[in-house]
Every structure is written in C-alpha cells, then in structure tokens.
Amino acid sequence: MVKKKALIIIDVQKAFDDKKWGERNNLNAEDNISKILKLWREKEWLVIHIQHTSDNPSSVFYPKNEGFAIKEIVEPVDAEVIITKKVNSSFIGTNLEGSLRGNEITTVVITGLTTPHCVSTTTRMSGNLGFDTYLISDATAAFGMKDQNDTFYDAETIHNISLATLHNEFATILTTEQLINHFIK
Amino acid sequence: MVKKKALIIIDVQKAFDDKKWGERNNLNAEDNISKILKLWREKEWLVIHIQHTSDNPSSVFYPKNEGFAIKEIVEPVDAEVIITKKVNSSFIGTNLEGSLRGNEITTVVITGLTTPHCVSTTTRMSGNLGFDTYLISDATAAFGMKDQNDTFYDAETIHNISLATLHNEFATILTTEQLINHFIK
Q1: What residue numbers bound the domain in which A114 lies?
Q2: ipTM score
C-alpha cells in the first residue's frame, strides 16, 4: 500500500494539562486530532507521534513524570512510529526527515501542541524542507504568553496570529472538516 | 582574534521596498542594523549576510532583478560572508550551521527582514540547534498579512506577537541599545 501522506501528532502529552501553562484556547483540539487519526488508521496511511522529552527531572516532560505520557485519546497503537525530541522542532535531533523520505512521503499533515512553539517550528521546517504541508487550525491550540516587555497576549490571539504567519508561506491551513473532505474526495 | 559572536543580517534587500508588501512597521530597522554592523566591524567579530534568491524570473528576489541587491546601508565589505538561501530558514539548503560551527561561534545575533517569516524561522532553528541566540526587536520589521480566513493583521501586531512567541523559548529579545550595552560592558 502506498502511504504518501503522513499525519504528525506533536506533543499531545499530559504535561500540557499542568496549571502552570494558564488558559488554553481550543479545548477541542484533542477530539479533532482523534478524528483525523481515525481516518489515517482506516486508510492505513503513515502516523508519526512526536513525544517531547526532557533530561531535567523537574520538567513536566521528564520521562519518569506522568506528564510525559501521550494522552489516551490519541495514544499510539501497534506499529505506529513514536519519535522523541528535546527541542521545539520535530526535525532537529531526530530522524523525522529520514523517516518521511524513507516512506516516500510528500504530504505532511501537522496537528498537536502548541501552535506558537513546537507546531509552528515543525510546520516551518516541513514547508522549507519541501514537504507539501497542511496545518490543521482546530487540531492545535495555544496558551497565552508574555513578551519581552511583560505585555500579555491571550491564547486565542497567539493562536490566530501564529496561523496567519504560517498561512501560504509554509503550509496550507485547513480545519479538520476541510482536511477530511479534501482527502476523502 | 577569537570571534565567538556572529551577527546574522537576513534579507535586507531592495526587494522589500516593493509596494506589493503593503505597510511596514519599524522603518528604523536598517539604521539599527547598520549601528550593530558598525560595532561588529570594529570588534572584528563574524558578520554573515543572508541573501534570498529565487529561480523564478518574475520574483523580486531573482538575481537579475534589482530587488536582489542588498541595501547599501548594510552592504557587505571585504571578506564578510554572504550566504544565499531559497527558503525562509537561513539554515536550510545552506552551509550556515557549518560556517558557525567552523568559526566556533556559540552566540548568534539575528537581525533583518521579515520578523514573522525568515527572521522567526531562522531564530527558531538557531535556538533549537543550540546557539545562544539574540534577536534584536528594533532591527527587524514586519508587513501586515491576512490569515486563511482573510482576516487582516497589521504589521505592528504581526511583529509584536512574532517576538512574543520567540521570547525565552528560542532567543533573548533585546533592543539595539540593550545589545550594544550588553556586549560592550
């Protein structure tokens, strides 16, 4: 079976349920990722789970801490690939590019957490590395954050503008529904 | 002389004077880059000019078109390195990482155009590749842009939120004045 389309699910880990992150937008992200994952499994297309890890025992991403675990709703099954990473980009310090090229993947669909950091960075590199890249707007989510002058921007603003800066330059931005219609046709 | 600090000047090319980009924020960016460049030359630290190029004859970045030229105010001199790139990230399809490692650079200072695209992507990769990365807020600039739903965000908003998403996660954000004080002390 030809598996030209890869679904990448970034950092959907319990660590992001920690209160330290503050308010999140789009609480439906995990449900939407789960819908897309179901489609990918039915089609037997390639699924790659990205799991963030930290060497720091006090990090919520330290493997012995419960935050490291991937959330049950998108838990990997069987032979699905899991790639661990230590920085934001799923392509740095990992074999993600080799894994995609080895599987002759030309189309990459990106979902996961969080929009401005790991999702944006991975989407930028995917586009720049030449993959036909789709980012699913309602299958990702953001937290609010402060800038270098201590000005706070809420989660929805961070999410929306992160998507605007990626749109057309690095990826095609679709909703879950648009993606499913697009690939089922 | 030890040259551990590299200044990277991204895409300060005449192409960005084209009207097609719309209104830009921070028209002082080039002046600020020029001040930093002067300091780097005095210190004899490494300067790397990044120049965007396109294979498409109708592109403002096509080498035969006038937009390809680096603006006079930051024009390379003597043996300064010029690296051409074809995508947003200065690290993809180029020898930038090798050039930094070969010069034993550990600190990277990033300036140039534009904040949400080439500057953000290069800053993300610089930080994720392990370089101690500084991004100079008033030595970069943005244009307004529309998202996938045709909602327009003005240049200043795109600039500010692009910086917020990089702050502390990928880079230390400083003004030109802060940078000069920081490295002169």
Answers
A1: 5-184
A2: 0.96
